[in-house]
Amino acid sequence: MKTIKQLVMSATLVTVALGLGGCAGMSAQDKNTAIGAGAGAVVGGVLTGGSAVGTVGGAAVGGVIGNQVKPPK
């Protein structure tokens, strides 16, 4: 059982590291879009009780809002 936990933890750490590395070349607007889409998906899923339509709709709306946010200068 301990080896399964170690395998899961290692896989999780590798996934997080690769995910963070993928954001290195993104512009501020791209990052805001991705953050908005992620947050919108979570909120949409929660508000609709885990409905796929609510999650996808929330991600779309969140992505649009995140795309329109202007970073401070």
UniProtKB/TrEMBL annotation:
Keyword set, alphabetical order: Signal
InterPro entries: Gly_zipper_2TM_dom
Organism: Massilia rubra
Glycine zipper 2TM domain segment(s): 33-69
One Pfam match: Rick_17kDa_Anti
Residues annotated as signal peptide: 1-28
Transmembrane parts of this sequence: none
Name under which the protein is recorded: Glycine zipper 2TM domain-containing protein
